[in-house]
Design brief:
By secondary structure, the protein is of the alpha+beta class. Helix content is 17%, strand content 41%. The protein has eight helices and 54 strands. The strands form 13 sheets. A seven-stranded mixed sheet has the order 49-52-51-38-41-36-54, with no helix packed on it. The chain is flat and about 115 Å long. It starts with a helix and ends in a 5-residue tail after the last strand. The N terminus is likely disordered.
């Protein structure tokens, strides 16, 4: 019995001790009075902690102990007063509690979640997959707070899906943003726009803040029209469309916008009230019908502002009042004997309000259509200047009084390379009324001041004749100087041999094209030069050598051809295999070279997880073919995508390389299908053997030979070669009309010691489309100078209509694996009607013992393009995997 009594007493004592240590209520709330001297900010933080604890979340022992210490500190402060030291301790302890209760997640999990939000921020089109992975991660973590956060994010995702569905129903699948707004950019797809709008909500939830906003943030994606163009109706300036529509979402009465007219300096214009109104949660409209804009200053704009968005993000629409004037006039009669009375008629455009005439004899007039009499027989230059509030313009014409009809003209330029554009200017006397030009190449014109293109070289020149006439007769003039059209100067050369053991003697052969070449300047890449036409040179040291030839004509024109790594004077090695240290230390870098080649198939516009680790490999596109597509030439859209990008993979639980491919095709047809060849290099070689670069937002080119981009990093002293291994041409209007000199360009070329990047697709306006490009650059080094180099770089010019070009036998399939790293398709007429079996192709395919280069783009059969292609070949000794059949 004594033992039982003792045990009962012991249990009671334990319970008393436990109860004495728990001075916090069972919910662990911080129970303090609101009349304390803690201040409103601290009280608000305590209330937030109490609300979190009231959810019943699990609290660890360390956090419970800090809560006890915090309550005790607050009690002491309430008794003795809150001095500075006590307030600081309350703040420090409260911060520890906040950190402990914020989300209940470990640092690694939180870093993973924040990383997924960053993926959405960088690639907003991936919000669906990244958001779903955030929810899965939280659900796997467990715990009350993680579950609550998962539920909140599910709500955000469901709301985003609903908004996506509703906006698609309103605006269509092809919908694009046309304004920048709160991080969303003009040109963004609807997927990308929705992704931008949820980033802030996700960050709030993960940081413990409420996702709901007191006033919803309005999001604006598109404003139609982009310009308010008014026209004159009687004495008023009216906006014919009458309506401006803003499309986005989160439009409620609480965040209704205000609209006003601002002048060029941004000052609101009084007296004109505008009332935008909400037609749905996704659209806001502004009715401008019946408004007279006559009193609005030039270059004004309509500005939308929001109650909870900074005004700097407001959407502005330019609103021209009228067009600036362009002066033009006619006169009759066009000539005659003195005195001659002439009627002048204003034919200016752009709503001029003032006219000022200068008749060339000291007389003037401010009438719109004056009459003037010329008293003397001579030539008069008559000038008209017109003005309105937007500017002024001047035009002049020559009037000949009392002078006989005499043909004459000038032209410029007088010589140049074919195709040569020559501008002709009529300088005939006696006021001719009709002109007939004979350009000497079988072509004619009846314009007064024509331009003509000479396409065929003729060093002896073309003779040009002008015949003019009026009511009094005719006159003919043949220019004594001829139009000299020279063959386009293009430096080029060959060499025999281009590879061999050092010392290596090479015979160079000039194959340049062009008229009157008189000088040759060779740079053999080893510090020596020559001015012979066909020199012979000996390379004494093993290395890869760049060779450059500059040719000059008698007229002073010059052109340069550079061939990087053209001569391979190699050093014989013993047997080498990857993973073993070579005999010569300079080849140790090759131990870090490991390549893999794979093929993937996917529908156009889709994304594919390749499974290749972005932490271990650098990957790029080295071949592509798009099949069974109908090119869409109507309006703007993304033209071409074929590139890889790193992104978190739910399947592989790490960042992997994802592939996307697309070509602009008609939306009512099934998407084209793609086959993409991918090259992956082990990152151990990065920085020593190769480097990888990504460039965004580059403008499209302006035609042949117009480099889009240069980067000082891409210098030829560092890199033996750079190639394009990924590309995107975004937001352009494909030009399908007629033959164009440049159809599709995505390649690099050396110039001035730097690798220049050329990017272009034929569009109606140049430059128009914007580009993304991934570049793979191979570093220079003697390690490349072997009998069968690890990397080979070749350039091929392919004749028109040859869609399968066989590579030379010295690049056999048994020794090398090859891919396309640069394309230049020229002088083709795109075929825009109907589905084509091959929409676009640029890839390497095995053809028995040699490689075949397959190139094509949908063009009219009688106007097919020509191709120049850059090829990268890798020695099979370092290639670990290849597609089946390779």
């Amino acid at each position: 019995m004594n033992k039982t009594w003792f045990l009962n007493l012991l249990i009671v004592l334990v319970l008393i001790v436990l109860a004495a240590g728990c001075d916090i209520p069972s919910s662990y709330e911080l129970d303090i009075e609101t009349t304390s001297d803690l201040g409103p900010e601290t009280l608000a933080r305590i209330d937030a902690v109490n609300r979190t604890l009231a959810t019943g979340m699990e609290v660890g022992p360390e956090t419970r102990q800090v809560i006890r210490e915090l309550n005790e500190t607050i009690r002491q402060g309430m008794k003795a007063g809150f001095d500075e030291a006590t307030l600081k301790r309350v703040d420090d302890l409260l911060r520890v509690v906040e950190d402990g209760l914020k989300i209940g997640l470990d640092e690694d999990t939180l870093a993973t979640l924040n990383g997924l939000v960053e993926v959405i921020d960088r690639q907003p089109g991936q919000w669906e997959s990244a958001g779903t992975e955030i929810i899965r991660t939280l659900e796997r973590t467990g715990g009350t707070m993680a579950g609550r956060m998962a539920a909140e994010i599910k709500g955000v995702m469901n709301e985003a899906r609903l908004n996506m569905q509703q906006m698609t129903a309103i605006a269509g699948v092809e919908f694009r943003c046309n304004v920048d707004f709160l991080g969303s950019k003009a040109g963004a797809t609807l997927q990308e726009f929705i992704g931008h709008t949820i980033v802030g909500k996700l960050r709030n939830i993960l940081s413990g803040q409420p996702a709901l906003e007191p006033i919803p943030t309005p999001w604006v994606c598109q404003v139609i029209p982009e310009r308010v163009e008014v026209v004159r109706v009687g004495e008023q300036l009216i906006f014919p469309a009458g309506l401006i529509t803003l499309t986005g979402y989160n439009y409620v009465d609480a965040n209704a916008p205000r609209a006003y007219v601002a002048d060029e300096a941004g000052n609101p214009i009084p007296g004109l009230q505008l009332f935008p109104y909400r037609t749905s949660p996704y659209q806001i409209q502004l009715n401008l019908q019946g408004i007279d804009f006559s009193a609005i200053p030039p270059r004004s704009r309509i500005v939308f502002t929001w109650p909870n968005v900074p005004e700097t993000t407001g959407v502005a629409i330019l609103m021209p009042v009228a067009n600036p004037p362009v002066a033009r006039f006619t006169f009759a009669p066009s000539g005659g004997g003195a005195p001659l009375t002439v009627q002048f008629t204003d034919a200016s455009s752009g709503d001029p309000t003032e006219w000022q005439w200068d008749f060339g004899d000291g007389a003037t007039s401010n009438e719109r259509n004056p009459t003037h009499t010329f008293m003397e027989a001579r030539r008069y230059t008559v000038q008209l200047t017109v003005r309105n509030p937007l500017g002024s313009s001047t035009a002049s014409e020559v009037l000949v009084v009392g002078e006989a009809l005499a043909a004459n003209f000038s032209f410029s330029p007088r010589q140049g390379e074919a195709p040569l554009v020559v501008n002709f200017t009529d300088r005939s006397g006696g006021n001719p009324t009709a002109w007939t030009w004979d350009f000497g190449d079988g072509q004619t014109s009846n314009e007064q001041n024509p331009s003509h293109i000479y396409t065929t070289p003729r060093p002896e020149g073309y003779s040009v004749t002008l015949r003019v006439s009026n009511a009094e007769g005719t006159s003919t003039y043949t220019a004594p100087d001829r139009v000299i059209v020279l063959e386009k100067l293009q430096a080029d050369f060959t060499a025999t041999p281009t590879s061999g053991q050092a010392p290596l003697t090479v015979a160079f052969q000039d194959t340049s094209r062009g008229s009157h070449i008189v000088a040759w300047e060779w740079d053999f890449g080893d510090g020596t030069t020559s001015t012979e036409r066909n020199p012979v040179h000996t390379y004494t040291t093993h290395n890869l050598y760049d060779v450059r030839l500059t040719v000059t004509t008698a007229e002073g024109r010059s052109d340069t051809e550079s061939k990087p790594g053209f001569i391979n004077a190699y050093k014989l090695l013993g047997m080498w295999r990857p993973g073993l240290i070579p005999l010569d230390p300079i080849f140790a870098l090759l131990n870090n070279v490991e390549a893999h080649v794979a093929k993937f198939s996917l529908p156009g516009g889709q994304m594919l997880d390749t499974g290749w680790s972005a932490n271990r490999f650098v990957c790029g596109v080295v071949g592509m073919v798009a099949r069974n597509g109908d090119m869409d030439e109507n309006g703007h859209g993304d033209i071409l995508k074929a590139y890889l990008y790193p992104q978190y993979s739910n399947t592989y639980r790490e960042s992997t390389w994802w592939l996307t491919a697309d070509f602009r095709t008609h939306s009512d047809q099934a998407e084209e299908s793609w086959e993409i060849t991918v090259l992956c290099l082990d990152k151990r070689g990065e920085g020593g053997v190769f480097d990888y670069f990504t460039y965004n937002n580059l403008p499209g080119g302006e035609g042949e030979g117009k480099a889009v981009f240069s980067d000082p990093q891409l210098n030829q002293d560092t890199y033996i070669y750079c190639g394009v291994v990924g590309q995107e041409a975004a937001w352009g209007d494909i030009d399908e009309n007629n033959v164009h000199d440049v159809v599709w360009q995505a390649y690099t070329a050396p110039s001035g010691g730097t690798w220049m990047l050329y990017l272009d697709f034929v569009t109606h306006n140049r430059p128009e489309e914007t580009w993304k490009a991934n570049l793979l650059c191979i570093r220079r080094g003697s390690y490349l100078a072997t009998e069968k180099p690890t990397f080979r770089f070749e350039h091929f010019d392919i004749p028109r209509g040859n869609h399968l070009y066989l590579l030379p036998e010295d690049i056999p399939t048994r020794d090398y694996v090859c891919g396309v790293v640069g394309v230049d398709a020229r002088r083709g007429d795109l075929l825009e009607s109907g589905k084509r079996p091959i929409l676009l192709e640029a890839e390497i395919v095995p053809q028995g013992p040699v490689w075949g280069l397959a190139t094509d783009i949908a063009t009219h059969s009688d106007r097919e393009e020509t191709w120049s292609v850059d090829v990268l070949c890798i020695n099979r000794t370092v290639v670990k995997t290849v597609p089946e059949g390779w």
